[in-house]
UniProtKB/TrEMBL annotation:
<protein>
    <submittedName>
        <fullName>Aldolase-type TIM barrel</fullName>
    </submittedName>
</protein>
<keyword id="KW-0288">FMN</keyword>
<dbReference type="Pfam" id="PF03060">
    <property type="entry name" value="NMO"/>
</dbReference>
<dbReference type="GO" id="GO:0018580">
    <property type="term" value="F:nitronate monooxygenase activity"/>
</dbReference>
<dbReference type="InterPro" id="IPR004136">
    <property type="entry name" value="NMO"/>
</dbReference>
<keyword id="KW-0560">Oxidoreductase</keyword>
<keyword id="KW-0285">Flavoprotein</keyword>
<dbReference type="InterPro" id="IPR013785">
    <property type="entry name" value="Aldolase_TIM"/>
</dbReference>
Length: 350
């Protein structure tokens, strides 16, 4: 699919820009706005898939909403994707794949398995469903190191999302920035004559400059997460958007650690993952020696009182370059225009 990523998703324009499936933030409104603007929107599909999970009904509702926003009939495929967090895969095959097939989503993004091998039965089940139903969908795996990339390639995914450690949100505890990861992945594909697996870059990209860099390093397209949080269509609370706008110097003002999840009682990710978020009151308390129990108590007390100041703000290291909340269409068009202008300028200078 590599050279053809734009052809695989015919509504997309060049260069290929996707919005990350940020669970709780990437809803039908955000994803359809991205898709309508010529990008590729992903909806965050969640991480609890057992029968009876409210995340299953929420996903079905989001996809129905997306269908209605885009004015599609029940028969027409949905030109957007769904991201699934896979470290608790119980129920995923039986309960989620039928929902995705019913809506004929154009792409599925898998991330954060306990072990890479856990994706194989999921991928096989999707392929089997495709064979019997004629459903066209592309499978992406988000990976943060070369070993994981190799395994995803062997599992014959259609695309890799290479996630560098500048990324906002959860990620590999041990990884590298895109500048190291992307060329090694591209070489791996070249050495094996693989021209079909698409490569998307994620982590610290917020504008055309980052996009040009990623394309230069070997990506076929890019994914932005934090940048899409600060858009008019993202349902994130305005306090989160304001924190993103007011935060500068992301290498210092964000931190990559498992501690964010401890403080907000969401410490369920396997130990090979951590997360990058803005350094906030909880983290500062911890640095000053306050116990975890006391921080959790303060966090819960603030939440119960409707005080959002202790809320985790997941954000990447490029947060300092995000200066305004903008409509999705402006973000995508401006980024694409910047890419063309930068490339022309660079070419003229050679
Ligand atoms: C608020 C937020 C929530 C995220 N949630 C998810 C998620 O549910 N699933 C997932 O695969 N990645 C998630 N990520 C990571 C993104 O997929 C992506 O790797 C990251 O946003 C790229 O870095 P950037 O934020 O610097 O653009 C999240 C990132 C952010 C910022």
């Amino acid at each position: 699919m590599a050279e053809n990523i734009l052809k695989c998703f015919p509504h997309t324009t060049s260069p290929f820009i996707a919005s990350a499936p940020m669970f709780g933030f990437s809803d039908a409104g955000l994803a359809t706005a991205v898709t309508k603007a010529g990008g590729f929107g992903f909806i965050g599909g969640g991480f609890l898939f057992q029968t009876g999970s409210s995340q299953l009904t929420a996903l079905d509702t989001q996809l129905t909403n997306a269908r209605s926003i885009l004015g599609l009939t029940d028969e027409q495929p949905l030109p957007l994707g769904v991201g699934l967090i896979t470290f608790q895969p119980d129920g995923l095959i039986e309960n989620v794949i039928p929902i995705l097939q019913k809506h004929r989503v154009a792409a599925i993004w898998l991330s954060f398995p306990q072990a890479e091998a856990d994706h194989l039965p999921i991928i096989r089940a999707i392929r089997q469903t495709q064979r019997v139903s004629g459903w066209e969908t592309r499978i992406f795996s988000q990976v943060g190191n070369i070993a994981a990339a190799k395994e995803a390639i062997q599992q014959k995914v259609d695309g890799l999302v290479i996630q560098g450690t500048d990324a906002g949100g959860h990620q590999w505890a041990q990884g590298a920035s895109l500048i190291s990861l992307l060329p090694e992945v591209r070489d791996l594909l070249l050495e094996t004559g693989n021209t079909t697996t698409a490569v998307l870059a994620a982590g610290g990209i917020v504008d055309g400059r980052g996009c040009v860099a990623a394309l230069g390093l070997g990506a076929d397209g890019i994914v932005m997460g934090t940048r899409f949080v600060a858009t008019s269509e993202c349902p994130a609370p305005s306090e989160i958007k304001q924190t993103i706008l007011s935060t500068t110097d992301g290498g210092v003002s964000t931190v990559k650690t498992t501690r964010h999840d401890v403080f907000q009682s969401t410490d369920v990710f396997p130990r090979r993952y951590d997360g990058r978020a803005v350094v906030g009151m909880n983290y500062r308390d911890s640095e000053e020696g306050v116990s975890d129990e006391e921080i959790i108590r303060r966090h819960n007390e603030a939440r119960a009182a409707g005080d959002d100041r202790r809320r985790t703000v997941w954000a990447g290291t490029s947060v300092g370059s995000i200066k305004a909340v903008v409509p999705v269409e402006d973000l995508i068009k401006t980024t694409q225009q910047e890419v063309r202008a930068i490339l022309e300028r660079v070419k003229a200078g050679l």
